[in-house]
Specification:
The protein is mainly α. Helices cover 68% and strands 0% of the residues. The chain has helices spanning 10-28, 35-42, 46-52, 56-79, 86-107, 116-120, 129-147, 156-164, 169-178, 183-194, 196-200. Helix 2 (35-42) crosses helix 3 and helix 5 (86-107) packs antiparallel against helix 10 (183-194). The longest helix is centred in the first third of the chain and has 24 residues, at 56-79. The protein is elongated.
C-alpha cells in the first residue's frame, strides 16, 4: 500500500483519482492510459482504485458528469435571463448543449475512434444523465411556449427526441467527421429544422 494511503479520506482519494485521470487522459488520450498508471499517479494501490472505479470507462463517465454539472448551471442561468424570449432561450440551450457534446466527445477521443467506444464504456444514450437533463429542459421550454401561445400544438416528446438523436454518438460523429459540419453549424441547422418553424407557425386569434 502506498505511503499514508490509509490516512486519506475517501473523498480526498476520489478527487485525487479524478484529477490525475483527467490529466493523464488529456495528455495521452484515453486509449493510452491504464488503471495502473492512474493508480501510480494518484499514489494509491490498484485495489483502492478498483474498489471505486471498475474501469477507465467508469472514470471517464464520472469526469463527464463533472462537465455536465458545469453546463447544467450555465443553461439554468440562461433560462432565467429575463431579457430573452422563449425562442431565444431554446436557441441558446441548443447551442450550449451541442458544444457540450463536442467537448465531451473530443475529450474521450470519440471523434478519433469508433463511437462503439462509448458503448463499451457503458454509455446508454436514452438512459444517461445528460439525456435526462436536456430532454427535460427543452420539453419544459416548449411546454411553456405552448401555454403562452408562442407556438402552436406540437408533439414535444417527438420534437425534442428528433433533435437529441442527432447528437447520439454515431450520428453526431458522422455529421462531424464524414460531412464536416462544425458544432455551431449543427446547432444552427438543428434549431432551424426542429424548433424555429414552431414559432413561425403560430396562428394568432
Amino acid at each position: 500500500m502506498p505511503l499514508h494511503e490509509e490516512s486519506r479520506g475517501s473523498l480526498e482519494i476520489n478527487e485525487l483519482i479524478l484529477k490525475n485521470a483527467r490529466q493523464l487522459i488529456e495528455q495521452r488520450g484515453v486509449d493510452k492510459v491504464s488503471m495502473h498508471q492512474i493508480a501510480k499517479a494518484s499514489g494509491i494501490g490498484q485495489g483502492t482504485l478498483y474498489r471505486r472505479y471498475a474501469s477507465i470507462g467508469d472514470i471517464c463517465l464520472n469526469l463527464i458528469e463533472e462537465k455536465l454539472c458545469v453546463i447544467k448551471e450555465d443553461i439554468r442561468r440562461g433560462i432565467e435571463e429575463p431579457s430573452w424570449s422563449t425562442e431565444e432561450r431554446i436557441g441558446q440551450v441548443i447551442l450550449k448543449w451541442v458544444r457540450f457534446v463536442e467537448d465531451a466527445m473530443v475529450w474521450i477521443g470519440a471523434l478519433d475512434e469508433s463511437c462503439h467506444k462509448l458503448q463499451r464504456m457503458g454509455f446508454e444514450f436514452s438512459e444517461s444523465h445528460p439525456y435526462v437533463f436536456i430532454f427535460g429542459t427543452l420539453s419544459q421550454l416548449l411546454n411553456q411556449a405552448a401555454a403562452a401561445n408562442e407556438i402552436g400544438p406540437c408533439d414535444t416528446c417527438f420534437v425534442v427526441n428528433a433533435f437529441l438523436f442527432l447528437l447520439e454518438p454515431d450520428c453526431y460523429i458522422y455529421l462531424r467527421k464524414s460531412r464536416g459540419y462544425t458544432p455551431d453549424e449543427i446547432a444552427d441547422k438543428a434549431y432551424d429544422l426542429y424548433f424555429r418553424p414552431l414559432f413561425k407557425n403560430v396562428k394568432l386569434s
